[in-house]
Structure formats: structure tokens, C-alpha cells
């Protein structure tokens, strides 16, 4: 029997046609009623997808409405705040928290299957916690700074994700962690680890839409925190940030296939792979430039290493080991496109070698240009052969960026640059038109 996840979505007209045809097949004795039911169960009308989209838009609108109502109430209270006594202020400070918790209790007790109610309750409680902390602090003049406020808010907000099962709250917490990392450059990004059990729970319960969106927010937050924590001015890891970013990108790429499987090829459905590919593509382009500072001795810098730098180095080592384990375990299952992405890991190894033996910057510039040139051509070829537009455009975009980077290279004459740009642009358009026609002819042959 087909599960909801395995059902194929077709248009409403085609689903209606299939119902009519299967009915006539049954009447003529070509198939029996049980076979007809099994055939229809393999497909779902696009209206089902529409209902799902409507549900998501409903959750979004309800959450937005809840945020606006909460903000309006806070503004009204703030306008009259000075005229209230201390006891009134205390009661009003806890009132949003009590109301939000009551709504959460109602959702868990009476609407446990309503995702809209649970998401709204989680968002309301998350902001009620923050409002109550700030109002009580202001009323009783409790000493503190923004970092402590955000940290307390984060610690009190984490249980909401697990009790209410709210993916929207997880996204808000990801933003809060990112705020802390950007403000203080401390290893607050380790808090992303506290979100992993919830992500695993979503994975086990086959809540793929919620899992995908939660992963996108959490991974973007993690990437931004680690890159910012290692690449800012005067950081001891500044010279290493390019290698740390590339190792993290390769590790995310491997993690995506390790957890989501090799069958999941959707861009939005596998965030670790998609984000890993974007990091690999961008960082590999950075290697094509001269002037990139090579690693230096970490322990000879004026600024000492802090806990944040040590934890980022630990993450770098974990990523390095993880990629090696992935390649050694799945080497036989990796396709050509997988190898194109994972080959970028060679630059991480070269960076470590360069740290000890000083192999020179020319090696990185020449090899990275060759790597992108060959890799992008291979991806374009695979995209055409497999009729996969995403791979084809990925290869074209990667190649175009390489050409664009060389456009600003002062060593190449203007005439050559102009001819190359016109040729690449024309090839881009022709390849897409030809590919679309090929796809259309395949669809018509199928019909």
C-alpha cells in the first residue's frame, strides 16, 4: 500500500481522467476493484498539495497575527507603564506569560494534532518569556546586560521546542543564538547542538516539511556563527577561516547524504547538501584569487586563542574526520557529481600541508581554477545526460562565476574577456532552450 510520502502528485484533471479510465477498465473486466483502488492510491490530486500549502499559509498567517496582537498589547501597556504601581506592573509582567502558557496547555490538551494552534502557542510563549524577563527587570531594577538577557531568554525558550513541538520556535531560537554569536563572539553556537534531538524527532516522525525548514534555519545560523567567529578582524583563526568554511561545507554535504539518503535529490528537501554545495562553490572560487593569506603559526600571534577559537578548531577536526569516514564508507555509492563536490576537500588537505611545508600560493590558484573549470563542465554534461536542470544550471552558474572572476583579473586583455562573456552567455541561453525542448519531447513521448 502506498504511503502519503510515496504518493505521486498529479494535476486535478489527470487525476479525474485516471478515475474515469480506471472505472471503465473495471467495468470491462480489465482490472478488479482491488487493483483499481491500489492504482488510485498511488496518485494524489494536486488539490491535496494545495490543501497542504493552504495549511502552511494558515500557520504563517496565524503566527503573524499572534505576533501583531502581542506587539500591540505590549505597546498599549508601555504607553501607560509609568502610571502603574509596582504591584500592577508585576501582575502585568506575568500576565502575558500566564496567558501564553494557558494557550499552550489548551493546545496540548485539546488540539494536539493542530499544527497551527501549537505553532501559534509556541511563538506566543517564546515572546511572552522575553517580555516578562524584561518587564520584571525594569520594574525591580535588576542588574544585567543584553548578553545575559538573551542568554536567559534562550535557556528558558529551549524547552518550548520540546513541549510544544514548535518548529517556528526553533527558527526563532536559531536567530537568538546567531544574535548572541554575532554580538559576543563566544561559542554560543554550541547551543545548536541542543536542537539536534528535536530535529531527529522530526526526522523519525517523517515530518519532512517541518524538518527541512527547521534545518535550513539552524544550519544557516550555525554556518554564519562559525564563519563570523573565525573570520573577523584580529581573530587568530582569520587565516584559517577559508579552510574551516570549506571543511564545514564538505561535512554538511556528507551529513546530508548520510542522514537523508542518496535518493533525496530535492534542493529544499535536503538542506545540509544544498547549503554544503553552496559553501563549496563559493569558497572554491575564493581560492582562484591571488593575495589570499596563507595559514601562519597559531601560537605566535599577539592575540591569544579563546574558548571560541578552540571550539571552532575542534569542529574543524570533527568535520575533517567526518568527511574521511563518509568517503571511506560510501565510496562505492558515490556518483561523478558527488566526487566533483567532495574533491574540493583536497584544498583543506593542501592547506594543512601548506601550514607545515609552505607549498606556495600558486598551487592553490592553478588547481582551483582547473578544478572549477573541469568540475563545472562535468556537471553541465551530467545535467544534459540525466535531463536534470538543477545540475545543468549549477554547472553553468559555477562556470559563469569563474569567468566573472577572471573578468576582473587585470592580466587578461579586454578583447578576450568580451569574447568569453558573449560566448558563455550564448551557451547558457542555447543550453537551457535545448534542454527545455528535450524535456518537453520526453513528456510528450510519455503521454
TrEMBL record:
Keywords: Membrane, Transmembrane, Transmembrane helix
Membrane spanning residue stretches: 59-78, 90-108, 120-137, 149-180, 210-234, 240-260, 272-290, 310-327, 339-357, 363-382, 389-408, 414-435
Domain DUF2157: 24-167
Superkingdom, taxonomy of origin: Bacteria
InterPro entries reported for this sequence: DUF2157 (IPR018677)
A Pfam family annotated for this UniProt entry: DUF2157
Protein's recorded name: DUF2157 domain-containing protein
Amino acid at each position: 500500500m502506498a504511503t502519503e510520502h510515496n504518493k505521486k502528485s498529479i494535476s486535478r484533471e489527470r487525476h479525474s481522467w485516471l478515475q474515469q479510465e480506471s472505472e471503465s477498465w473495471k467495468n470491462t473486466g480489465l482490472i478488479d476493484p482491488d487493483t483499481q483502488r491500489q492504482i488510485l492510491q498511488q496518485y494524489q490530486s494536486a488539490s491535496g498539495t494545495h490543501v497542504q500549502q493552504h495549511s502552511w499559509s494558515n500557520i504563517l498567517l496565524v503566527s503573524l497575527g499572534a505576533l501583531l496582537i502581542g506587539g500591540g498589547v505590549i505597546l498599549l501597556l508601555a504607553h501607560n507603564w509609568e502610571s502603574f504601581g509596582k504591584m500592577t506592573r508585576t501582575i502585568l509582567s506575568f500576565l502575558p506569560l500566564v496567558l501564553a502558557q494557558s494557550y499552550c496547555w489548551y493546545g496540548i490538551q485539546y488540539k494536539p494534532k493542530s499544527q497551527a494552534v501549537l505553532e501559534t502557542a509556541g511563538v506566543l510563549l517564546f515572546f511572552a518569556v522575553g517580555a516578562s524577563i524584561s518587564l520584571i527587570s525594569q520594574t525591580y531594577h535588576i542588574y544585567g546586560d543584553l548578553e545575559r538577557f538573551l542568554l536567559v531568554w534562550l535557556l528558558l525558550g529551549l524547552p518550548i521546542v520540546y513541549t510544544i513541538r514548535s518548529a517556528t520556535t526553533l527558527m526563532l531560537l536559531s536567530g537568538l543564538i546567531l544574535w548572541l554569536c554575532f554580538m559576543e563572539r563566544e561559542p554560543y553556537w554550541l547551543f545548536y547542538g541542543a536542537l539536534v534531538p528535536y530535529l531527529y524527532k522530526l526526522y523519525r516522525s517523517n515530518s519532512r516539511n517541518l524538518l527541512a525548514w527547521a534545518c535550513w534555519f539552524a544550519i544557516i545560523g550555525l554556518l554564519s556563527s562559525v564563519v563570523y567567529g573565525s573570520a573577523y578582524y584580529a581573530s587568530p583563526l582569520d587565516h584559517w577561516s577559508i579552510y574551516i568554511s570549506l571543511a564545514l561545507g564538505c561535512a554538511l554535504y556528507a551529513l546530508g547524504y548520510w542522514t537523508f539518503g542518496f535518493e533525496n535529490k530535492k534542493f529544499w528537501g535536503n538542506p545540509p547538501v544544498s547549503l554544503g554545495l553552496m559553501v563549496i562553490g563559493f569558497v572554491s572560487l575564493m581560492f582562484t584569487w591571488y593575495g589570499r593569506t596563507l595559514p601562519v603559526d597559531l601560537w605566535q600571534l599577539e592575540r591569544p586563542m579563546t574558548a571560541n577559537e578552540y571550539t571552532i578548531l575542534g569542529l574543524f577536526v570533527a568535520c575533517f574526520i567526518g568527511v574521511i569516514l563518509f568517503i571511506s564508507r560510501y565510496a562505492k555509492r558515490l556518483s561523478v557529481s558527488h566526487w566533483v563536490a567532495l574533491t574540493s576537500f583536497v584544498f583543506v588537505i593542501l592547506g594543512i600541508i601548506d601550514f607545515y611545508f609552505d607549498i606556495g600560493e600558486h598551487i592553490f590558484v592553478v588547481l582551483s581554477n582547473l578544478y572549477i573549470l573541469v568540475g563545472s563542465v562535468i556537471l553541465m554534461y551530467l545535467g544534459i545526460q540525466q535531463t536534470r536542470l538543477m545540475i545543468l544550471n549549477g554547472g553553468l552558474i559555477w562556470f559563469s562565476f569563474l569567468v566573472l572572476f577572471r573578468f576582473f583579473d587585470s592580466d587578461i586583455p579586454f578583447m578576450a574577456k568580451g569574447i568569453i562573456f558573449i560566448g558563455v552567455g550564448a551557451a547558457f541561453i542555447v543550453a537551457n532552450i535545448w534542454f527545455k525542448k528535450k524535456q518537453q519531447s520526453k513528456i510528450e513521448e510519455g503521454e
